[in-house]
Write a structure and sequence with these properties.
The chain contains twelve helices and 18 strands. The chain is of the alpha/beta class and 412 residues long. The chain folds into two domains: 234 residues, Spore Coat Polysaccharide Biosynthesis Protein SpsA, Chain A (Alpha-Beta Complex); 159 residues, Rossmann fold (3-Layer(aba) Sandwich). Strands 5-4-1-6-11-8-12 form a seven-stranded mixed β-sheet, sandwiched between helices. The chain has a five-stranded parallel β-sheet with strand order 16-15-14-17-18. Strands 2-3 form a two-stranded antiparallel ribbon. The chain is globular and about 65 Å long. It starts with 11 loop residues before the first strand and ends in a 5-residue tail after the last helix. 45% of the residues are buried. The mean pLDDT is 95.
């Protein structure tokens, strides 16, 4: 961990997993809704996997009904996720509502945290929310909203003329009438706890009052949405979710692609962004792609900087990308070199490009299809690594990244 304090990245996500699941009938009699199977993993594992793409490192599961089953699933959930994570369980002492569940978890909550429902998933670019919230840190809370042509099943959210501040919530509108709805995905400051009671509904008792006080903002996202509250929707999720979230992937080299290749870039003072790299990453995220970084870092082997410095640089770099509205889902770097000055790194590595090890490890970890992957690099060794991994590759000569992604068919 570095001492860098992120501006946009939020490391903790609380997930409401204590619902009764009554609308699912016998299906949820002994299995909590979030643990319902969807493809090769529980629904909750898909949701947590998505949150990890945006920098979440800790999950706080707000449990109640069938909490023993949630607790027993924790280790299995960890093994299903592509990144290491910490999972903390908070069990409400009695039925406390969504707001009460948060209040009872007070000792575990960070100064800023994400919150989402454990029985719904909105496949949108969450970095849009992170970016907007970072630029307006005084707002108590932010809600990811989505536009629907028919809001009859949902409550409606109204924004002020600035298109950002939430002014009020209303009950569902007549069938066939469109509007904005609450997707169940939030970013809050810990100060929210001052507005909660030991038993209360966040949606009914708290959010309308916060909106009236001017403390809530909203961001409209786009993408696939599915909740699993009723049997038909659960069936759809079991079919649709694995196909939706097995994404195409964009692999990017770092020096010469993301940033200028000034030689041995191991700390922030030597890091200069390429002109449109952050915008290109944001566009790839909006298009629904994984974005992965694969970079040789023999500067570590040469003793010019160490892994702690490099990882601090990468934390800052990814936070800056979040601030720009995109994300790097995951990254791999190779510090090894056969002529290393630092003995521990003096070896031939299957991860060092042109070998394909870093690419193959990400393909395996995130279960992506090589046929739907593209790498952008600035050296022939990058292209050779891609060929060795069985994925497409394109060479950049240091120009703008966006036109190349369009030319390569990665972006429309």
């Amino acid at each position: 961990m570095s001492a860098y304090t992120p501006r946009a990245t939020v490391a903790q996500c609380a997930i409401l997993v204590g619902g009764l699941g009554t609308r699912l009938g016998d299906l949820s009699a002994s299995t909590p809704k979030p643990l319902m199977p969807c493809g090769d993993r529980p629904f909750l594992a898909w949701l947590m996997r998505e949150m990890q793409r945006y920098g979440v490192e800790e999950f706080l599961l707000l449990a109640g009904h069938l909490s023993d089953e949630i607790e027993q699933a924790v280790e299995d959930l960890k093994h299903l996720l592509p990144k290491p994570t910490r999972i903390v369980l908070s069990v409400e002492p009695r039925r406390a509502g969504t707001g009460g569940a948060l209040l009872h978890a007070r000792p575990h909550l960070h100064d800023r945290f994400l919150l989402c429902n454990g029985d719904s998933l909105f496949d949108c670019n969450l970095a849009t929310l992170l970016s907007r919230a970072a630029r307006k840190p005084d707002a108590l809370g932010w809600i990811m909203l989505r536009a629907l042509n028919d809001t009859a099943r949902y409550g409606v959210v109204f924004l002020a003329k600035d298109g950002e501040r939430i002014v009020r919530f209303a009950a569902s509108q007549p069938e066939g009438q469109g509007g904005l709805i609450n997707s169940g995905m939030y970013l809050f400051r810990r100060d929210l706890l001052d507005h909660l009671a030991p038993s209360c509904s966040l949606e009914v008792d708290v959010l309308p009052h916060l909106a009236a006080e001017g403390g809530l903002c909203g961001v409209v996202g786009e993408g696939y949405f599915r909740d699993i509250g009723i049997p038909d929707d659960l069936t759809r999720a079991q079919i649709e979710l694995p196909a939706q979230l097995h994404r195409p992937a964009l692999f990017l080299d770092r020096d010469g692609v993301i940033n200028q290749d000034l030689g041995w870039v191991g700390w922030r003072e030597r890091f200069t962004w390429m002109p449109d790299s952050r915008e290109a990453v944001r566009a790839a995220c909006n298009a629904g792609l994984h974005v992965f970084l694969v970079t040789n870092q023999s500067g570590i082997a040469r003793g010019l900087y160490d892994e702690v410095q490099l990882e601090a640089l990468h934390r800052w770099m990814i936070d800056e990308i979040h601030l720009a509205g995109g994300t790097i889902d995951d990254l791999r770097y190779c510090p090894d070199h056969e002529e290393a000055v630092v003995e521990r790194y003096r070896r031939r590595s299957t991860w060092r490009k042109p070998e394909p090890g870093m690419i193959l490890d990400l393909i395996r970890t995130w279960a992506v299809d090589p046929a739907r992957c593209t790498l952008i690099g600035d050296q022939q060794t990058d292209l050779q690594a891609a060929r060795n991994a069985g994925i497409a590759a394109h060479l950049t000569c240091g120009g703008d990244l966006m036109p190349l992604l369009k030319h390569a068919g990665v972006l429309a």
